[in-house]
Amino acid sequence: MTERILHVATNVSHYDDPSHPTGLWLSELVHAWAAFEEHGFEQTIVSPEGGTVPLEPRSLKFPSYDKASKAWHADPERMALLEHTDSPESIESGDYDAIYFTGGHAVMYDFPDSEGLQRITREIWEQGGIVSSVCHGYCGLLNTRLSDGNLLVEGRKVTGFAWQEEVLARVDKLVPYNAEEEMKKRGALYEKAKLPLVSYAIADGKLVTGQNPGSAKETARKVADLL
Fold first, then answer.
1. Which of 77, 82, 131, 135 has an alpha carbon within 20 to 30 A of 183's alpha carbon?
2. How far is CA 86 from the centre of its chain?
């Protein structure tokens, strides 16, 4: 049986202030997709509402806009995958071995309270599958509860985009909340690299998280190793 990965991407295109666009950080999808593709895994993209996934404009600039991201952006077939994503209602969690939450600041808005995504995440976890995220993707894990009522992240090691990195990215005044702080409030054992914006990923059992855009490949490889 071929392993199957469910990527999660955002439908949100701007911050609270509509004059500031955001969306999927493209390389976080592209680098993980390539790592999973090397293993021959089947891959699907879901979003909270289904349909179109907007791109974060800043992810289409150097250094994030690398050769792999440019190739994806220039490929009509690849881009079509982001125009026609599945909705959570159409996803049978038993069909997937792992879920991978991509980032971009947009996910801070539509990931945390998506009951559809929470259902899929809980079911994949409780069926013995892997739950993973990169960068702001960990916002999708903030409010997910297991069947026993406990938060999935409580007491588990987690990483994701750090507040220090928000400040360095100059969006600390734009973001709707401090994701690092919210994760700690939920009892997660938050970790980060000694230096900002370097690749850092951790696995706590079947929970795999990466800190920032540069961590997507490392995160996906850890997921692949577990599979």
1. 82
2. 16
CA distance 129 to 223: 10
Quick check: pTM over 0.85? yes
Q: Tell me which amino acid residue 131 is.
A: V
Element (H or E) spanning 28, and its range?
A: helix 26-38
3-state secondary structure of 188: coil
- φ, ψ dihedrals at 161, nearest 5°: -55, 125
Residue 214: both structure tokens together: 């540069």
| DSSP 8-state class, residue 161 | -
- Angle of helix 216-226 relative to helix 26-38, nearest 10 degrees, comes to 30
d(CA 191, CA 180): 9
Cα(120)–Cα(44) distance, integer angstroms: 13
Tokens of 17: 């202030």
pLDDT single digits (tens) 81-123: 999 999 999 999 999 999 999 999 999 999 999 999 999 999 9
Q: What is the phi/psi pair of residue 90, to 5°?
A: -90, 0
Which residues touch 50 (CB under 8 Å, ≥6 apart)?
11, 85, 86, 87, 88, 90
Determine how many CB atoms are found less than 10 A away from the CB of residue 163: 15
Residue 160's nearest CA partner among 124, 115, 193 is: 193
- Mapped onto helix, strand or coil, the DSSP state of residue 165 is helix
Distance separating alpha carbons of residues 29 and 187, to the nearest angstrom: 28
